Amino acid sequence: RVRNTKLYLAAFAAVLGPLSFGFALGYSSPVIPELSKISDPDLRLDSERASWFGSVVTLGAAAGGVLGGYLVDKIGRKLSLMLCSIPYVFGYIVIVSAHNVWMLYFGRMLTGVASGVTSLVVPVYISEVSHPKVRGMLGSCVQLMVVTGILGAYIAGITLKWRWLAVLCSFPSCIMLLFMSFMPETPRFLLNQNKRSEAIASLRFLRGPHADHEWECQQIEASVQEEGLNLSEFKNPSIYRPLLTGVALMFFQQITGINAVMFYAEIIFEDANFKDSRMASVVVSSIQVCFTAVAALIIDKTGRKVLLYISGIIMALSTALFGFYFKMVLPNRNNSSNSDVWFTLNAASPGTESSISWLSVVSLGLFVAGFALGWGPVPWLLISEIFPLKARGISSGACVLTNWVMAFLVTKEFHDFIGFLTSYGTFWLFSAFCCLNVTFTAFYVPETKGQTLEQIEACFRRI
């Protein structure tokens, strides 16, 4: 067993990127209620502006996914991560100095671009520096840091005004830039660039002086035989099968509705007539952090598919329960076709919401716990494992683009779904998609537990 604390140090430096990513995602939830009540009409967020403020970050992330897919193969994993800090910091500077809603949108877009690059590069970096015994745990730490960032934004948002919260959110990316400057590039990228001596030095840093660096280097070299990727090669099952699997994983992850729920967590609780919506959001986010940590600790023992099964079943049940809650509380208002009903629910059945308001917190808590156990961390881990080295950049870019386009569509249209399908109908639709996730896992998701990246690639070649 290889033990070297420097590997964990490299992983920690990298996951400061997902921490920044989490702060960017969580920023909207405490800020939207605050900006909806301010007196300045240029900055005040009505329901339409709020939906754009919450979702424009996902548009930036989709663009960042495409950019990251290019950068990760051209300039490397390490430098791509270091460059991420620039749009993060500049985006928050724009938000802090904002005088109108367009500056808010632009700042959110920039942090989204950085988040898109981060969400692609960090899983690739960690999977390539890790050895199989800990790759699942370290890969799951990506999602753990994302949800930790979301929780940090929620907690800080209780006491900090929106401009000071933006200042705080810029710190993790600055620390990542500092730490990553001392970390090595991944051995696989270096060998792909014919830099064998640098790859050996990287392995010595990551594995310690007593590991068999030469043997691991030879194993990697055996899979880095053909350089470049032609379009015609996508006819090869070893390339198109993992690509289709990865794209489908990203689609199914977002269609559960997780980002819509997290973006509008406070509004969900306000409209569910919960007395302290901010604290309820913090509780739900804390649950997400705890269960993501549990997933990280057990994923290398249980395997990837088992966690996806458990996660999908829990989410299907909990979203069905949340739909039942709204069906009970809002029997009349839910028939309205007005999409703004989601933001103005004040006429629920008298007394009903106070007697079963706990059900909204329990069902949403279960949903978040279920997502955190499997469909949160596992898809990101799998897309960092299943692609062959020469197709890793473009395939990961396609997956990240799919993820964030779907996140934008679900987040932006969430309150329109509420108006069209009713609130309970929307959550029941999410429940149906969660059932579909379980079916997809059973037939198409490979188990990668305990295998090297080279073994996984060879497995797809044989299919």
TrEMBL record:
Keyword rRNA-binding on entry = no
Major location category of this protein: membrane
Q: Which Pfam families match?
A: Sugar_tr
Q: Which UniProt keywords apply?
A: Cell membrane, Glycoprotein, Membrane, Transmembrane, Transmembrane helix, Transport
Segments spanning the bilayer are 7-32, 52-72, 79-99, 105-126, 138-156, 162-183, 243-267, 279-299, 306-326, 356-382, 394-411, 417-445
GO CC aspect terms: plasma membrane
Q: Which InterPro entries match?
A: MFS_dom (IPR020846), MFS_sugar_transport-like (IPR005828), MFS_trans_sf (IPR036259), MFS_Trehalose_Transporter (IPR050549), Sugar/inositol_transpt (IPR003663), Sugar_transporter_CS (IPR005829)
User: What is the annotated localization of this protein?
Assistant: Cell membrane
- Domain Major facilitator superfamily (MFS) profile intervals: 10-449
A single GO BP: D-glucose transmembrane transport
| UniProt key word DNA-binding | no
Q: Which reaction does it catalyse?
A: D-glucose(out) = D-glucose(in); D-fructose(out) = D-fructose(in); alpha,alpha-trehalose(in) = alpha,alpha-trehalose(out); L-dehydroascorbate(out) = L-dehydroascorbate(in)
A GO MF annotation of the entry reads: dehydroascorbic acid transmembrane transporter activity
Mode of membrane association: Multi-pass membrane protein
The entry assigns this protein to a family as follows: Belongs to the major facilitator superfamily. Sugar transporter (TC 2.A.1.1) family. Glucose transporter subfamily.
Functional note: Insulin-regulated facilitative hexose transporter that mediates the transport of glucose and fructose. Facilitates hepatic influx of dietary trehalose, which in turn inhibits glucose and fructose influx triggering a starvation signal and hepatic autophagy through activation of AMPK and ULK1. Also able to mediate the transport of dehydroascorbate.
Protein name listed in UniProt: Solute carrier family 2, facilitated glucose transporter member 8
